[in-house]
Specification:
The chain has 258 residues and is of the alpha/beta class. It has two domains: 52-202, Ribonuclease E inhibitor RraA/RraA-like (Glucose Oxidase, domain 1, 3-Layer(bba) Sandwich); 210-257, no CATH class. Helix content is 36%, strand content 21%. The strands form three sheets. Strands 1, 2, 3, 4, 6, 8, 10, 13 and 14 form a nine-stranded mixed β-sheet that branches. Strands 5-7-9 form a three-stranded parallel β-sheet, with no helix packed on it. β11 (179-181) and β12 (184-186) form a beta hairpin. α2 (23-38) packs across α7 (207-231), α4 (93-99) runs parallel beside α5 (122-130) and α7 (207-231) packs across α8 (243-257).
C-alpha cells in the first residue's frame, strides 16, 4: 500500500528553487538517485524513480514555468449507482478537492487518459483562482481555456482543449489519494514541476535531495562549458564530469558561503 502520509510539507523555498531548473535536470536527478540506490543492490534498477515524466500532457498555457505541491482528484468511468452516490453538490469530490488547494498547490486530476473529454471549465476552476492555487494538471482536456488562462491566470497542463462536458454520469471519486495521471504515480504533496517541455513529478520525500543534486550538477556543467570554450576542445574531454570536477564545484560553493 502506498504511504500517503507526507513527511512534512515541501517548503515554499524548495518550490522556488525548482522553478529555476529545467525538467531535464529533474529527470536527471531522479535517475541519479535510482542509480545510487541500485549500487548497493547489484545494480538492480527494477525499483526506479525515473517513471516521473508525463509523456502525453502538454502546456495549455505556454510560457508558464511552475513548481507546486500536488493536491489530487481521481475519476471513475460512468455508472449510475456510483454517480448517484458521489454527486453531493458542494460536497462532491471535485469541490472538496479545490477547497484543499491554496498558494503553492496545484490540482492534479486523473481521468483515466480519456483525453477527448473536457473537465473543470470556467465555473469550477474559478474556485482554484479564488483560493490562490497555481493551476491544474490533468490527462484529460480542459474547457473554457481562454477564460481560465486570461482572466484567472492559472497554469494549465493537459491533453488538450475541448468543448465536450465530460461523459454523462462520470463522477469524480476521491480526494487527496495516490492517483495515476498519464501513467505516472502522483501522491498528494509531491512536487509537480512543469513548463513548455511537459510535467515531471518529484516525490516529496526526495525533493530536497533532488534539488541539491540539480543545483550542484548545473554548476558543474557551467564549469565544463567554460573550460570547453576557453580551451577550444570537445566536451568529451570533460564529460561526463569527474568526481574531481564535482569536488571543485563543492569547494567553490563552500567558499562563497563563508
Amino acid at each position: 500500500m502506498v504511504n500517503t502520509e507526507s513527511n512534512g510539507q515541501v517548503s515554499d523555498d524548495i518550490l522556488r528553487r525548482f522553478e529555476k531548473v529545467s525538467l531535464q535536470s529533474c529527470t536527471g536527478g531522479l535517475g541519479y538517485i535510482t542509480r545510487k540506490g541500485a549500487a548497493g543492490k547489484n545494480a538492480d534498477t527494477s525499483s526506479s524513480w525515473v517513471n516521473c515524466y508525463m509523456k502525453n500532457i502538454r502546456p495549455l498555457t505556454p510560457g508558464r514555468k511552475i513548481a507546486a505541491r500536488a493536491r489530487t482528484l481521481s475519476f471513475l468511468p460512468p455508472r449510475p449507482d456510483l454517480a448517484a452516490e458521489l454527486r453531493r453538490g458542494e460536497n462532491s469530490p471535485e469541490f472538496e478537492a479545490m477547497e484543499t488547494c491554496g498558494p503553492g498547490d496545484i490540482l492534479v486530476v486523473d481521468v483515466n487518459r480519456m483525453s477527448d473529454i473536457g473537465i473543470l471549465g470556467n465555473m469550477k476552476t474559478r474556485r482554484l483562482w479564488a483560493r490562490g492555487a497555481t493551476g491544474l494538471i490533468t490527462d484529460a482536456s480542459v474547457r473554457d481555456l481562454d477564460k481560465i488562462r486570461d482572466e484567472y491566470g492559472l497554469a494549465v497542463f493537459g491533453a488538450g482543449r475541448s468543448a465536450i462536458t465530460g461523459l454523462s454520469g462520470s463522477p469524480f471519486h476521491e480526494v487527496n489519494v495516490p492517483i495515476s495521471c498519464d501513467g505516472v504515480l502522483v501522491v498528494p504533496g509531491d512536487v509537480m514541476v512543469a513548463d513548455d517541455d511537459g510535467v515531471v513529478v518529484i516525490p516529496q520525500q526526495l525533493a530536497e535531495q533532488v534539488i541539491d543534486w540539480i543545483e550542484e550538477h548545473d554548476e558543474v556543467e557551467d564549469l565544463i562549458a567554460q573550460m570547453v570554450d576557453e580551451q577550444d576542445v570537445s566536451p568529451g574531454r570533460f564529460y561526463p564530469p569527474s568526481e574531481e570536477l564535482r569536488q571543485q564545484v563543492r569547494d567553490t560553493r563552500a567558499k562563497r558561503a563563508e
